[in-house]
Amino acid sequence: MNHKKCNFIKTILSLTLCFTAFLPVMSQEVARPATPPARPVFRMPSIIVSPEILADNKVTFRILAPQATNISVSGEWMPGYGTSEPMVKNDTGLWTLTVGPLKPELYGYAFSVDGIRMIDPNNVQVRRDGTRYESFFIVPGQESDLYQHKTDVAHGTLAKRWYKSEVLGIDRRVYVYTPAGYENGTQKYPVFYLLHGAGGDEDAWTTMGRAVQIMDNLIAQGKAQPMIVVMTNGNANQAGAQNDVPQPAGQRQMGMSDYMKYAGKFEENLVKDVVPFIEKNYRTYTDKDHRAIAGLSMGGMHTQTITNDNPGMFSYIGVYSMGIMNFGPQNTDAAKIEQEREAKIEVLKNSGYKLYWIGCGVDDFVYEGVIKLRETLDKHNFKYTYRESTGGHTWANWRIYLSEFAPKL
User: Fold this and answer.
1) What residues have CB less than 8 Å from 346, skipping those under 6 apart?
2) What gap in Å lies between CA 157 and CA 225, rounded to an integer?
3) Which 8-state DSSP code applies to residue 197?
């Protein structure tokens, strides 16, 4: 046997031995579980409707909290701040409460779960007023019709713009509503500067005041002419709403002396920074007869200061829930301040304004200040329109005031 044949036979023998060695392993059956593991079943969570607005305008609230021992609801329809009603728990841990019937309006509310205040976890409609969050709902009807978002009307655009404030030395944010058709048009528009109250910011009139829905619906109904609405941040120490633009740590806790550093700065900022920014970047008329300004509470005070100091700048002026504050005998400059204010009112009276509109609720804590404002204006034969409503210092009133003031512009 030659050498090559010998090597071939050895190779065959080696392969045969290797294959034979693996036969016991190959012949064994692979172990398998007796039953395949069960796949997790996807289940939709139980749908809890809250709030549920019933046909008779009663409203039912629900929250599932089996471990809770005490839950109540506080809402804007209740008399007095801090009033609440207890909810009732069933054997499944579902708590319920039915209230009303309620008149057509937008209502904010919150739950208290074992002493912890919280929004309704089953309601996606949430609004923010400064640092306070609430759930809300709208009871439909004629009185709340302007607050509804409607799919059959043309909608304006809400833009969040940044501008450089030379007065304050920072970039600041402003909300600008432009009416439907602005983007594709060439015409100029009048401008309405709308100011919020203490604790709020540039977001307040859109989330709490429903300004966009009100303007869309008024314009669509032909009750108000198309206009640009500018909503600023009235807190001179803030660049923007704190939920989007957190303040530096050193500014979160400010004393009265810190705030006094900003006294009058917002008003100066609006006149010297905001108005020029709007008129440069938007198609606007730039004369006083096409400018309006109005504000609620602190914004009403800002409105008075701005128009008193700049007569002839705005032809339409609205003061919501704010009068002349009583400085008291402890203020040695009270008499001088009063004298200067009355001199400015006399100049404003002769400036050619078209409308000075005042609105206040009979239960508002600023009601006496509004009486003083009216008495001061009456002393100067200053013409104004006065709107007295029920209720107090609430957004329910301020939405009404906007709905009535805007058509007069």
Assistant:
1) 380
2) 16
3) -
pLDDT at position 326 is: 61
What confidence tens digit (pLDDT) does each residue in 87-133 have?
999 999 999 999 999 999 999 999 999 999 999 999 999 999 888 89
Q: Which of 153, 227, 147, 156 is nearest to 194 (CA)?
A: 227
CA torsion angle for 321, 325, 326, 327 (degrees, to 10)? 160
Residue written as tokens 């402003």? 174
Which residue, chain included where needed, has tokens 């089953």?
122
Order of all β-strands in the sheet with 228-231? 157-165, 170-178, 228-231, 191-195, 291-296, 316-320, 355-361, 385-389
Residue-wise pLDDT for 189-238, tens only, equals: 999 999 999 989 999 999 999 999 999 999 999 999 999 999 999 999 99
Task: Report cis status (omega within 30 of 0) of the bond before 101.
Answer: yes
Taking Cα atoms as reference points, which of 49, 194, 59, 210 lies closest to residue 123? 49
Number of other residues whose CB lies within 10 A of the CB of residue 203: 24
**Radius of gyration of the chain from Cα atoms?**
33
CA 7 vs CA 10, 19, 60, 317: distances in Å: 5, 19, 94, 111
What is the CA 116 to chain-centroid distance, rounded? 23
Lowest-pLDDT range of 208-217, 220-229, 322-331, 352-361: 322-331
Does residue 66 have a cis peptide bond before it, meaning omega lies within 30 degrees of 0?
no
CA angle 118, 232, 179 (to 5 degrees): 100
Residue 165: name the closest of 299, 304, 275, 302 by CA. Answer: 275
Burial degree of 364 (CB within 10 A; 0-12, 13-18, 19+): buried
Residue entry with tokens 């050193």: 250
